[in-house]
Inverse folding.
């Protein structure tokens, strides 16, 4: 559509559709350019587009050291939550098959697991999610560029394709959501040459066989758990403590259960070198911190799970003065996800002090998009974010650990209610339930506001999710006791919890 307008006594022809676009985006190509196509970046870009903004997303996956690569969707979809939970489910089914005999199922012959069948099914599902994300971006008119992005200034992004093609995009706002990648030690001979990470384990074409998992993070324990569950000889090497940052009493229960489940643990041990033998096996040498002695053993696979590093090095942030945490390399952000440079924002795992969790990245991304579009001023609430560790005995939690509660409020100012319980489904199967445990941490005075809730047992994520809303609403111990449980469930035991640690009484649940 064209029209005429008068300026300084001259008549000129103008394309009004072009003017409307320029007025909306200002002097920039886009309102928002997002660098990173993971959970947070995709959520932010799609929300912004739905609010009428012109948006582009840049996503590029650098292959792992083993050459593993994947499609759109980030860590969670490709090498995290989704394949992890599916392989965890494979392990749970193995346990269920064993339990089935006690429930009367007649199973002919011994059972075994086929890695390739599981891996292909999981990988096909992941690929369907990759495709789905691309379709969603297209439907919402978000420009998707399979290119590596770097920031030239507060309004300019440089894009580089794998073929060397370059492109410049300008935007009113730039959002960085590039997440992180697993670390591999550089000071251990053979570590990088012969080890794999969580970037690789889910895309292996054949069984990893006898596996050494180095690390004690939730990633390490989850991987070790499902590998044990599908019948593989698995050892976890722990330098100091397991599940750092989580409640340590619960962490002990989780590892105790895993040991009884068949996972081996080498506590207070540090790998020294990794050598590949002519047979193809890996000879791993490590030292025992308690005795100072060296030991070695052979494994088919060595999986490093010693933490993650933020993907900030290739973004060009140093030249712009974007403030980073010197120890972690993560971007320092404000309560509104803003960085130290105007018009540049960061969200998700790359941000300092934020939970490395998909749901927080998704929600914060959506809220950021709404604020940038001028539709809201709501900030992300990072308090009482629930999470679950999908180990063989699942661990769900929300709020403070007992250690954190003591630091913040003082030991004498908190009350810890706890219970050991036995899931009904464990009874006929004659499974050990000695690590099935509930802990509810409350303020000791007043209404006894709940500060933290911890649960180990079947379906821990499903149990914890509902109670987390209660904590967001300021739930108290009285509210908990006033809640009617669903019988017979594991979750109902939380509503009946009444023994305090302070009392010293036996916390084992008996009967209804």
């Amino acid at each position: 559509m064209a029209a005429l307008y008068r300026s300084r006594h001259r008549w000129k022809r103008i394309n009004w559709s072009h003017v409307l676009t320029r007025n909306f985006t200002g002097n920039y190509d886009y309102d928002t350019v997002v660098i990173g196509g993971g959970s947070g970046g995709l959520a932010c870009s799609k929300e912004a587009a739905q609010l009428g903004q012109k948006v582009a997303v840049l996503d590029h996956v650098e292959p792992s050291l083993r050459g593993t690569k994947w499609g759109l969707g980030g860590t969670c979809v490709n090498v995290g939550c989704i394949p992890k939970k599916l392989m965890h489910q494979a392990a749970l089914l193995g346990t269920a098959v064993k339990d089935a005999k006690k429930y009367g199922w007649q199973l002919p012959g011994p059972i075994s697991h086929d890695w390739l069948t599981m891996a292909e099914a999981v990988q096909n599902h992941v690929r369907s999610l990759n495709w789905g994300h691309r379709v969603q971006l297209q439907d919402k008119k978000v420009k998707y560029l399979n290119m590596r992005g770097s920031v030239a200034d507060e309004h300019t992004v440089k894009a580089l394709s794998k073929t060397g093609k370059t492109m410049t995009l300008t935007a009113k706002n730039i959002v960085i959501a590039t997440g992180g990648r697993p670390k591999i030690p550089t000071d251990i001979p053979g570590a990088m040459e012969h080890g794999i990470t969580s970037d690789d384990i889910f895309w292996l074409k054949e069984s990893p066989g006898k596996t050494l998992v180095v690390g004690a993070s939730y990633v390490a324990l989850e991987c070790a758990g499902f590998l044990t569950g599908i019948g593989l000889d698995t050892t976890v090497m722990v330098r100091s403590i397991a599940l750092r940052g989580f409640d340590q009493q619960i962490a002990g229960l989780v590892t105790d259960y895993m040991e009884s489940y068949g996972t081996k643990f080498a506590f207070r041990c540090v790998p020294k070198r990794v050598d590949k033998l002519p047979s193809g096996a890996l000879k791993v040498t490590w030292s025992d911190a308690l005795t100072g002695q060296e030991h070695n053993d052979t494994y088919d696979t060595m999986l490093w799970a010693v933490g993650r590093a933020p993907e900030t090095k290739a973004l060009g942030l140093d030249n712009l003065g974007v403030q980073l945490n010197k120890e972690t390399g993560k971007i320092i952000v404000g309560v509104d996800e803003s960085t130290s440079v105007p018009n540049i924002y960061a969200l998700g795992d790359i941000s300092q002090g934020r939970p490395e969790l998909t749901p927080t990245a998704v929600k914060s991304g959506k809220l950021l998009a709404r604020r940038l579009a001028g539709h809201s001023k709501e900030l992300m609430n990072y308090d009482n974010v629930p999470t679950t560790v999908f180990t063989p005995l699942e661990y769900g939690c929300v709020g403070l650990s007992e250690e954190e509660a003591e630091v913040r409020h003082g030991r004498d100012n908190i009350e810890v209610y706890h219970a050991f319980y036995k899931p009904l489904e464990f009874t006929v199967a004659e499974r050990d339930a000695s690590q099935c445990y509930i802990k509810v941490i409350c303020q000791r005075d007043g209404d006894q506001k709940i500060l933290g809730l911890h649960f180990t047992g079947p379906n821990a994520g499903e149990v914890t999710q509902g109670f987390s809303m209660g904590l967001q609403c300021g739930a108290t111990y009285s509210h908990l006791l006033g809640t009617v449980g669903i019988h017979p469930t594991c979750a109902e035991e939380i509503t009946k919890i009444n023994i305090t640690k302070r009392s010293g009484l036996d916390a084992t649940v008996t009967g209804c």
Summary: Residues 191-306 form a domain with the FAD/NAD(P)-binding domain fold (CATH 3.50.50.60). The two ends are 75 Å apart (CA to CA).
